[in-house]
Amino acid sequence: MNVDKAKKRIAKQVKKGFNGYPQVLLEYFGTTAESASEVVITFILEKDAEPQEQKFVCKNDAREDETIQSILVKIIERANASTVTEVAGVSIMH
Predict the structure, then answer these.
(1) Cα–Cα distance measured from residue 94 to residue 82, given in angstroms and rounded to the nearest whole number
(2) Which of 23, 36, 51, 79 could bond to 83 as cystine, CB 3.0-4.6 Å?
């Protein structure tokens, strides 16, 4: 799946807002606000459940990495996520 198609599919899910659980949260991290070298995807099965996290790291911008974006789409689909939330921008790593 190309990167633009994957990003559009994720954005479409995010725009739906909160629709209950299971919930997937995406957060991008980088040393600057311009480039995200990693993404953390958090899965929450139900309210008050222990979150499960998985991190993907790349040398370039994870938001533009075709493989990472395709994997995120597959995780969201396989989790049958009712809600997909994305933290805006890039969180700065210290």
Answers:
(1) 32
(2) 23
| Type of residue found at 15 | K
Nearest Cα residue to 22 out of 57, 63, 52: 52
Tokens of 4: 């633009």
E runs forming strands in the chain: 23-30, 38-44, 52-57, 83-92
pTM of the full predicted structure? Answer: 0.93
Measured distance CA(13)–CA(94) in Å, rounded: 30
Q: What's the token pair of residue 66? A: 């075709």
- Residue 78 maps to which CATH number? 3.30.720
Domain that holds residue 37: 3-92
Number of domains in the chain: 1
Paired with 38 in beta bridges are: 29, 57
Amino acid, single-letter form, for residue 36: A
Above 80 in pLDDT, residue 94? Answer: no
Residue 75 tokens read as 């995780």
